[in-house]
Amino acid sequence: MEQEYKGIYIFCGIQKGKNDEFGEIELEGEKRELFLITFQDAAIVAAEVPMKIFHPNKENVMMHQKVLSRIMKQNDTVIPVSFGNVFQSKEDVEVLLENLYPQFKKLFPEIKGKMEVGLKVTGKKEWLESQFHDDEQIGKLAETVRDKSEAASYYERIQLGGAAQKMIQSLQNKLKQEVFHSLKDSSVAAKANDPIGEKMLLNAAFLIDRNKEEEFDCHVNKLHDKWEDKVDFAYSGPWPAYNFVNIKLKVEEA
């Protein structure tokens, strides 16, 4: 029988609190105890797991997210770590934490009592089509290529694609001005990420005070009511501050 080598899976960093017992997780059919690896007032939440690569399938990613959600309910200073980081030993994680501590010490007051929420805004098919239909340049180019073969209308089709892309960029700018910047003013920090896919017009993350979550939700709801005939809102969270923390996980020479 092959010996199973153990590794240490890490979930997040926290500032040590009064109640830092987080119970068990179930990973690939086995229950595993969550424990802390500490340095001064900082800690990394970890679990002992088989030393291997964990694939980001739905079950594994959900497990990671559930652990972070559980920790966020008990601790108001959570520094997220992305899925799938496994180290060879507790000693390696201790070295990592000691190396990261200057960054953690700076981050703790910045993210204490804060959480991230996400907002993705996607244009409704009928509304997008109406925008293209009403655009004079797109209308003329579409008429030009309508009865021509693909080869004969090659350059017109390139122009049509370019005009359509400009239209989408114009709508993205409009949503950025009217939705993103409006919500940015109500947040501690905001980040506009690149939209995903042809119909997405806004892909944003906001860092907000936990005690102002209800106020921020109301602001999102008002904007949704204003835009609901044209776009779909996908509002998510609360999350740890993924978009506002940039930590590189490296075990360097002590």
UniProtKB/TrEMBL annotation:
Coiled coil: none annotated. It is found in: Gas vesicle. Pfam families: GvpL_GvpF. It comes from the Bacteria. InterPro entries: GvpL/GvpF. Keywords: Gas vesicle. PANTHER family: PROTEIN GVPL 2 (PTHR36852). Belongs to the gas vesicle GvpF/GvpL family. This is GvpL/GvpF family gas vesicle protein. It comes from Metabacillus rhizosphaerae.
